[in-house]
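Example pasted here:
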Amino acid sequence: MTGIRGLTALGLFIALPVSCFLFGETILKTPSVADCTFHNDPDRFTAPERRVRRALNDRVVAATRALKRDAVTAPVKAGSIPQRNFIDQEIFDKLAQMNVPSAQLSSDAEFFRRITLDLTGRIPSSDDVRAFLADTAPNKRDMAIERLLYSSEFSDRWTMWAGDLLQNTATLNSASFNRNIQGRNVFFYYIQSAIYDEKPFDQIATELITGRGNNYDWATATANFPMAGSTAMGPIQDTYDNMMVKAATTFLGEAYYDCLGCHDGRGHLDSINLWASQTRRAEAWGWPHSSPERASRVIPRMLRSPVRWHPICT
């Protein structure tokens, strides 16, 4: 065995230098583009995928052409559209005054797809579409709206929407302190419960603006909203101003209110906001103390009325 091992070791000792001499050039060669198999023959790798994509595209085009497209409907007079709420009145009365025609009412298929997307953020299933189209009840659109409003998908969709509106994150940019994960979670549960319980929007706004306490506790979860107004590196007055800006921006849609806290809007906001460009700093500072009469003209009707979290659908 010792002799065999010795011969093996001797063979390796002799073969290794010879291999390095014969193949050294190949080992030390720097790779180049010419060595890339993909570069030399790209079709070898891309042709199968390209064929699959082309076949799929051809099938979609053929199916689309096979569908019978509805004829383009002509516009109608805005005054002929039935009005069911103050939103319809605002839109169609304005169109009628300006003599602008309106599109016709949507078909059942169009309506059901749109209302499902609007209320739940999801595309309706094929079974639901067939059932809705087969329904002959004259009030089937109203019933579909009611069914979607009280679905779990509706609550989930608008919980997410409200979370975005209220900026419910664990970290807050430019704030002096953060909600952290615990605060974010209890704030989410508050938002979710408000949606599920159909809490009026004006009540939610009041609870959030006046929220106080431990932001980690469920009982005082509303304290997480004022935290977004806390301002780092400044006096407490900066926090007061920022809290007012957060409330006005979130609940009243008063954009660029933070700009008006420092200077007049004229000359600064002319190209981006008509309301703010016509508002002076003194007016912005005095708005929170304005009379109820002025507030009634400024605050949107939705916030003043006991409207629930149910969008008004036409």
